[in-house]
Amino acid sequence: MTLSANTVSSELASDLKRIADALERMAPAPHRPTDLGAADAFVWHPDKGNLTPVPKVNRVEMGLLRGIDRVRDQLNDNTERFARGLPANNALLWGARGMGKSSLVKAAHASAIGKLAGQAGVLPLKLVEIHREDIESLPALMTIMRENACRFIVFCDDLSFDANDTSYKSLKAVLEGGIEGRPDNVIFYATSNRRHLLPRDMMDNERGTAINPGEAIEEKVSLSDRFGLWLGFHKCSQDEYLDMVRGYASHYGIGLDAAKLEHESLEWATTRGSRSGRTAFQYIQDLAGRMGLHLA
Predict the structure, then answer these.
(1) Which residues pair with 128 in a beta bridge?
(2) Per-residue pLDDT tens for 226-273?
(3) d(Cα 183, Cα 272) in Å, to the nearest integer?
(4) Does domain 41-233 have CATH number 3.40.50.720?
(5) Cα gap 66→44, rounded to integer Å
(6) Alpha helices in 194-295, H assignment, sequence order
(7) Is the pTM of this model over 0.85?
(8) Is the CB of residue 190 less than 8 Å from the CB of residue 230?
(9) What are residue 129's DSSP bridge partners?
């Protein structure tokens, strides 16, 4: 049986349509531009190429951050200068765990918005979180921000690099060293337990195996040099810890005898092996739960 040319043409067109439909289903959905008016904070998703709004940021009020007055004032001043369009530095918040590094970044952003919102010439200030594993996608994120009529604090929590991890070179280029450089409307804040973002054994290994140990170490340390503002967070004293506990108890309206509050909170810190703002809040959460109170 011989097929006519019209039949072959019709079957070919049908096959081509099925192939085109299948390819369309397989293709990723087109990226929708982010509505930056939807929120004050966003999370960067490189796989989707967009920013997801965060309707309610998990923040701690500035007044509850105790024992870090100096670094608090420095970061607040730096953030406000940036929000006003004045020169400001990238900031690295490093040091003891649980002492409010990430909480301070979020509180400084909220403080700057509250103080400067609506003032003439002040652009909207957005907080954008990028996850550590997505650092290599920073150039793509910067491209989105560069032409936008907002100011952006790009925030990476718990930033550090391990041996054989070369993504730190992408961060170096974006912060200062690339041809385009950091856009004027973008600043980078990071928190880390390490001052130089790299483990000591990695740096010691570079020193021991490199032809020129000094140059190898310089390359590693130069990453943290890209941050003009280094803010150190250190372990708090017992008095500072108790001040944190009292501050939380007062803020949440927890009425407990002062002596019992002090005794219980110190016992809690001893069992945790740590005195910090995080430990103080965890004690308050436990106390509120035992008392049947809600932390609103």
Answers:
(1) 42, 154
(2) 888 999 999 999 999 999 999 999 999 999 999 999 999 999 999 999
(3) 43
(4) no
(5) 30
(6) 200-209, 213-225, 238-251, 258-272, 277-291
(7) no
(8) no
(9) 43, 155
